[in-house]
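Q: Got a minute? One more chain.
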Amino acid sequence: MRVQLALNVKDLDRAVDFYSKLFGVAVNKRKPGYANFAIDRPPLKLVLFENPDAVERLNHLGVEVFQDVDVREATDRLKAAGMADAVEDEQTCCYATQNKVWSVEPEGLRWEWYRVIEDAETFRGTVPSGTSPGTRHGTNPADGGNDQAGSCGCDATLMRRSHDPDEVREKVREGYTRVAEAAGGSNAAAAAEVGRRIGYSEEQLEATPEGANLGVGCGNPTAIDSLRPGETVVDLGSGAGMDAFLAARQVGPTGRVIGVDMTDAMLVKARENARKAGVLNVEFKKGRIEELPLEDESVDVIISNCVVNLSPEKDRVYREAFRVLKPGGRLMVSDIVLERPLPDAVVDSIDAYIGCVGGASLRSEYLETIAKAGFSEVRVDREADFGSVFDAADPRVQEVIARLRVSAAEAMSYAEAVKSLHVFARK
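A: Always. Here it is, folded:
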């Protein structure tokens, strides 16, 4: 066996050149954004992730072994000690299929015991062109920390800060594809509990078609203002369809609900949910919320549940909402805002971004964006502390805290800076 040291580096070419000379060995594996060295003297596996915006140089530590029995022994020992954070069997990670067990030390540093089974052509599953494998591609607390969901603990916890809207949207799409794929099964109960905490009634949860509640919202937009029979409603970022289905009940058979989402996996799930539930007055369209596939002045109400946050172009979202609303039409959204700026390490985390926090604006900026789009009567009908629904004892939350390398107290302080707003505006 040998110890593994995994580092974040700004320039992979320069790092490979330096460490080749430092240890007098050639690089063992070189892939886009990734390299490793297998060093005999001293026994060391050196792993390099190209991640120029990483706050910390140290990515994680590990022990590489060469027989499965060693991984099993480490797994049994760590489980017996209550220290096995995650077990990954035959997972593709770091351009190799591996068996491994993860453990997180008290200060948040991650260790892995692992064996490489064989090389792989991808970093983890498939990696979009132009995306560094040192970027975590969207693990959401709603996936329940499911080890079979295709996770790879070797990913850096930071996503490279980008000013390219398309790159940000691609990361969001990847993240929510994983949420859709991990939905159901044991995650359904967790999603229902999230629904209760953010304001859905038991009657609403029971009326939601199976598989439509993914537990990723921050409020209940249909509770902001009563929808009326016969109205046309658009749900921005409709996901698996939960709010669209609840809205469809309120507008009745003479009304119509249109869900708009850019993620294919979500659209497939939403359409299947509609078919199974026999809901006929709802349809789901593929599109970006910054460029809605709808006619001018064609809808009565726009709702959205913790989605506008995820857009890198919130001004365009609200201009589009204004365009498609009829005169007098209503905007009713639940979303996340910040009372104060968060540390860069949190903002840049893909966990925080997919969880709505990383993309959040300051409260004043968010409300001003709506007003600048042309809306009047902009007001906050209701708000809640994000900390009130933040459960530091939740294993899924603990997993994210570990990846961010912060304490539970620090995570709670960040949560207290976040508000969930229920916003109303009129065209």
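A: The chain is about 30% helix and 25% strand.
Q: Perfect, thanks.
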